[in-house]
Design a protein that fits this description.
The protein has 2 helices and 8 strands, in the order E-H-E-E-E-E-H-E-E-E. By secondary structure, it is α/β, with parallel strands linked by helices.
């Protein structure tokens, strides 16, 4: 249903470095680099960052939340660790999230501009 998504960032190089490390854990790589935008994906750019120098820091109250699918719990763990190593903040350590309809494994991070990014998988056991 969704073809791609983009987020505004205040420092393109800082964010490109952050996302290159973080998204690599999910099998996404930098595919496109332009003066004001960078695209990440597997076969085509699915996740874009766009330079917006004056974008205000995204506050937790904004509700911004992007969830990316991981294949395994190990990928979720690697996503979280990579984000923290690349300058992000944890907004929920990797772990099982019980829900009324489905059980899932996820981790939440916040990028340098305040965008909240989640990695999720649905383990069989």
């Amino acid at each position: 249903m969704i073809d791609h998504i983009s987020v505004g960032v205040s420092d393109l190089q800082r964010s490109a470095t952050f996302y290159e490390a973080t998204l690599a854990a999910l099998g996404l790589a930098r595919l496109v680099t332009r003066p004001r935008t960078v695209g990440f994906g597997k076969a085509y750019p699915e996740f874009w960052i766009n330079l917006r120098e004056s974008v205000p820091h995204v506050t937790p109250e904004s509700g911004v939340h992007i969830c990316l699918r991981a294949r395994t719990t190990a990928e979720v763990d690697a996503f979280h660790a990579a984000a923290l190593s690349a300058g992000g903040a944890s907004d929920g350590a990797p772990g099982i999230r019980p829900h009324d309809r489905v059980r899932y494994y996820a981790a939440f991070v916040v990028d340098p501009d305040g965008n909240r990014i989640e990695a999720v998988t649905f383990p069989a056991d």
